[in-house]
């Protein structure tokens, strides 16, 4: 839920919550079809309608859940890119650079707590109009929200409960890498338990395992296993970065205005970095045998860096912000600023050499 570079191409934009775009993932349509068929089969047309109502109730519960994550992140001053509702609940993509253990836990808890609240409302409503069609629907809303909340609160990444566990360990140890490792391994254990529940439990009880249950459990377990593996990999990457600072790769720059004529360009103490408007350009050589008129502006010789290839990272800061900016801007060079003023650039090859050593 934190990767801003991932494009939401696999979804349909359906709404916007507080300016944050909300997408319906394509996998939701598959889920809606499965729920409609499973609930509807054997019960005729009315069954299919009830199945579809369940699918829509689940969608609304997921949207409330993800909307709560997004609103909490917004409230805490984090930049929210989008909300996607899909198969297992969905995900909220936000900029995690300003994250602290407390903020991460608050954002993670907001989703399941909203579902618990809706479950209570549904249950109270169902009690009030017991025995009617409205009572059935309200009861359904209560159950769907209760199950969604409890499932997401399991303390294992990539679920919300896993994020809360990660934050706790992060807060206690002061190392996010430790939190990711613990909650990531909890995710792998959960994935194994889900498979054991679907296959092992019936066998122990002397029953034949149910095929549909195995397919569902296998799918959910594989999604959780993959998310948990990403958390563990990210923990190892963070551990490799610990104790290293941006100074180890920063190459100092001298900022040159883009309008400066080439003829006035003398030797500079650092790498010449051309600033023109809001853009930064790196100077290239004009090429063998090419003569450039001395009144040509230096910007004509520069290669512009992508717009997002700038990060606030002062001397002594850790490497992570420069690394994530490199990934999100897909640029092999990023400009480092200190109080908004460019002081150096960081180059992907230098980072790879440092981290590989
Ligand atoms: Zn969630």
TrEMBL record:
Principal location: membrane
Co-factor(s):
Zn(2+)
Q: Which residue windows are transmembrane per the record?
A: 12-39, 45-64, 106-126, 133-157, 177-199, 211-228
Would you identify the family this protein belongs to, as annotated? Belongs to the peptidase M50B family.
Q: Which GO terms describe its cellular component?
A: membrane
| Intracellular or extracellular location(s) | Membrane
Mind telling me what this protein is named? Putative peptidase
Which Pfam family, any one, appears in the UniProt record?
Peptidase_M50
* Taxonomic superkingdom: Bacteria
**Example GO BP:** proteolysis
- Any idea which UniProt keywords this protein has? Hydrolase, Membrane, Metal-binding, Metalloprotease, Protease, Transmembrane, Transmembrane helix, Zinc
Give an example GO molecular function.
metallopeptidase activity
The membrane topology term of the UniProt record is: Multi-pass membrane protein
Task: Look up and give the organism this protein is from.
Answer: Phycicoccus elongatus Lp2
Question: Which PANTHER family did the record assign?
Answer: MEMBRANE-ASSOCIATED ZINC METALLOPROTEASE M50B (PTHR39188), STAGE IV SPORULATION PROTEIN FB (PTHR39188:SF3)
The residue ranges of the Peptidase M50 domain are 54-130, 138-179
Q: Which InterPro entries match?
A: Peptidase_M50 (IPR008915)
């Amino acid at each position: 839920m934190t990767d801003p570079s991932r494009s939401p191409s696999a979804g349909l934009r359906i709404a916007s919550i507080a300016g944050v775009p909300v997408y319906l993932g394509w996998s939701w349509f598959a889920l809606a079809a499965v729920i409609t068929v499973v609930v509807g089969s054997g019960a005729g047309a009315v069954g299919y309608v009830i199945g579809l109502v369940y699918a829509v109730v689940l969608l609304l519960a997921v949207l409330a859940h993800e909307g709560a994550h997004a609103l909490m992140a917004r409230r805490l001053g984090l930049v929210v890119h989008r909300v996607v509702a899909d198969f297992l609940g969905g995900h909220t993509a936000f900029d995690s650079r300003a994250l602290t253990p407390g903020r991460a836990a608050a954002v993670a808890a907001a989703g399941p707590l909203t579902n618990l609240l809706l479950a209570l409302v549904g249950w109270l409503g169902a009690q009030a109009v017991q025995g009617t069609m409205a009572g059935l629907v309200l009861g359904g809303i209560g159950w769907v929200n209760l199950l969604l909340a409890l499932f997401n609160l399991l303390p294992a990444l990539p679920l919300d409960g896993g994020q809360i566990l990660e934050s706790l360990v992060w807060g206690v140890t002061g190392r996010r890498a430790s939190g990711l490792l613990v909650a990531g391994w909890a995710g792998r254990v959960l994935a194994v338990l889900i498979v054991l529940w679907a296959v092992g439990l019936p066998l122990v009880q002397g029953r034949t395992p149910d095929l549909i249950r195995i397919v569902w459990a296998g799918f959910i377990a594989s999604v959780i296993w993959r998310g948990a593996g990403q958390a563990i990999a990210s923990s190892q990457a963070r551990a490799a970065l610990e104790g290293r600072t941006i100074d180890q790769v920063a190459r100092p720059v001298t900022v040159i205005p883009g309008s400066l004529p080439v003829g006035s360009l003398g030797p500079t103490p650092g790498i010449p970095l051309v600033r023109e408007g809001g853009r930064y350009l790196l100077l290239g050589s004009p090429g063998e045998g090419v003569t450039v008129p001395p009144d040509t502006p230096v910007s004509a010789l520069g290669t512009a860096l992508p717009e997002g290839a700038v990060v606030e990272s002062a001397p002594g800061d850790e490497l992570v912000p420069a690394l994530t900016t490199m990934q999100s801007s897909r640029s092999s060079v990023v400009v480092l600023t200190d109080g908004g003023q460019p002081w150096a650039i960081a180059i992907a090859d230098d980072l790879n050499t440092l981290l590989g050593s």
